[in-house]
Design a protein that fits this description.
The protein is mainly alpha-helical. The protein has three domains: about 60 residues; about 35 residues, no CATH class; about 230 residues, MetI-like fold (Orthogonal Bundle). About 75% of the residues lie in helices and about 0% in strands. It contains 15 helices and two strands. A hairpin with a 7-residue loop joins strand 1 and strand 2. Helix 4 crosses helix 15 and helix 6 packs across helix 9. InterPro entries: ABC_transporter_permease (IPR051393), MetI-like (IPR000515), MetI-like_sf (IPR035906). It holds the Pfam family BPD_transp_1. Belongs to the binding-protein-dependent transport system permease family.
């Protein structure tokens, strides 16, 4: 009789707990359910299951950390650090030393930078680099945009024109510079064309202090146009077709569509073009080295060419490194300014 009463009381407790919304999962052995030990075992089994579940969740989270991408990135990170960041750190050190390759570096503090402030040739080359910047950047920022609009059409043979516009980019700068050197000769094609249209000209464009720097700037701009044309072409093909169609329905002319639809959408592309063209113009070296060597009278001497002469002709590595650091700082400042301007334009938009 007591056993029956015990069974009924236990069953009533189970029914009461289920009705209150507390679901229990356990296997109850009939022989041990009469006493209170059975309930204790039931609670213990529930707590143990919760702990196991918590451990299982932690293990699952740990398994989500995938090391495979980091393993693939590791060689690139090592190479970049070894051949870019480490030499940059060494350059900062050598800029404070007197280092002539065949002799150990001697610490001289800010002496290289003091000499730089008094070096007329440094200021001349820096000024020439900014002249290259002022001539080439507007050309390769504006002209390639119109070239991109010309080839942004679905007509037969348009890919041929795209290839022809891009061909100078993949041509060796050495070959291009030698070719243009003949064009700028007093008996070259440029003077021949000017004489043909009635303008008498026997100018040696590369030996005239007034024309040498603009002549090299035009060469650099011509060679880079195809590259920036492709960047603009990619941007034009991403412009929303719905906006263009809506502007046409509203009766907008082609000029208004370009000004009010294309140009606002191309703001990020303009930012990229401006940064890259700025860096390229300040770092102009190969064409100057081949065509004029910095002459006449240092009128075409760029800062990278002057750094090269100091480092590899005079072997004054310490002073050359100090000028390289200054050039790096200038490029960083120009890049940051352009980045701020481009972000400001996007926020306004």
């Amino acid at each position: 009789m007591q056993l029956l009463i015990g069974k009924r009381s236990f069953q009533s407790k189970v029914i009461l707990s289920l009705s209150s919304g507390f679901i229990q999962s356990a296997v109850i052995v009939f022989a041990n359910n009469v006493t209170g030990k059975g309930v204790g075992k039931l609670q213990f089994s529930r707590i143990e299951t919760f702990k196991e579940k918590k451990v299982r969740i932690k293990r699952t989270k740990r398994k989500k950390i995938n090391l495979v991408p980091y393993i693939f990135l590791l060689p690139a990170i090592v190479l970049i650090f070894t051949f870019e960041y480490l030499p940059t750190l060494n350059a900062f050190y050598y800029s404070f030393t007197e280092y002539h390759v065949f002799a150990p570096a001697e610490w001289i503090g800010l002496e290289n930078y003091r000499m730089m402030m008094e070096d007329d040739k440094f200021w001349k080359s820096l000024g020439n680099s900014f002249q290259y910047f002022l001539i080439t950047v507007p050309i390769i920022t504006i002209v390639p945009l119109f070239l991109a609009m010309l080839v942004n059409r679905k007509i037969k043979g348009i890919n041929l024109f795209r290839v022809l516009y891009y061909l100078p980019v993949i041509t060796s700068m050495v070959a291009v510079a030698i070719l243009w050197k003949f064009l700028y000769h007093p008996t070259g094609l440029i003077n021949a064309f000017l004489n043909f249209i009635g303008i008498e000209s026997e100018i040696n464009w590369l030996l005239n202090t007034k024309t040498a720097l603009p002549a090299i700037s035009i060469l650099e701009s011509w060679k880079a146009m195809g590259f920036y044309m492709l960047i603009y072409l990619a941007g034009l093909q991403m412009v929303s077709k719905e906006l263009i169609e809506a502007a046409k329905i509203d009766g907008a002319t082609k000029a208004r569509i370009i000004w009010h639809v294309y140009l606002p959408q191309l703001r990020p592309v303009f930012a990229v073009t401006l940064v890259m063209s700025t860096i390229g113009s300040i770092q102009m070296f190969t064409s100057v080295y081949i065509m004029t060597g910095g002459g006449p009278l240092d009128s075409t001497m760029s800062l990278p060419l002057y750094i090269y002469q100091k480092a590899f002709e005079e072997l004054d590595m310490g002073y050359a490194t100090a000028m390289g650091i200054v050039l790096w700082v200038i490029l960083m400042i120009l890049t940051i300014i352009n980045y701020k301007i481009s972000r400001g334009g996007q926020s306004v938009q």
